[in-house]
Amino acid sequence: MNEQVVQAARHYGYRGPIEPGMIHLIQEEGFRPAAYMDDVGVETVGVGATAENMDANFFTETYPKYVDRAQRKVKSYHKLPEEAQLAVLSAVYRGDMGPKTAKLIDEGNFKAAAKEYLNHKEYKERKKEDPEDGVVLRMERNAEAIRSAGGKPKSKPDPVARRGLL
What we know:
Blueprint: H1 3-12, H2 20-29, E1 32-37, E2 43-46, H3 58-73, H4 82-94, H5 99-106, H6 110-117, H7 121-129, H8 134-148, H9 159-162
Antiparallel strand pairs: 1-2
Helix pairs in contact: 2-4, 3-4, 4-8, 5-6, 6-8
């Protein structure tokens, strides 16, 4: 497991199951136990926590809150492939999942949703200044996962077929 995930779990005293979304957000945000100023001057701590989440336990308070927000924002969240769910969660956590993008995802128009997601002022400004900027790359990964969602409907594998018995 990623060292930052282990450090975060230890820091927050979390001993429960580590879900894919937790791992994904920690890998995207990083983990720093002490407060610091992020690249736009916002005080941040832990797993990219600002404002309302600064004193919250990432695993037991913040993460469940953002999963709930992602599910409320994108009604079809539970039907998406895992990679697209992680992208939506990442976008909601960063605060860059707009209502048009969410609506297009719910309509199953993943290509248009990915395009709309990148139709974002911060993305465009950062991309112009530095195409390798971390936020730019993260948003592009999210857009690609959303775009790809149309080709990978979520379904539970047949356990018998998976074992090669069919």
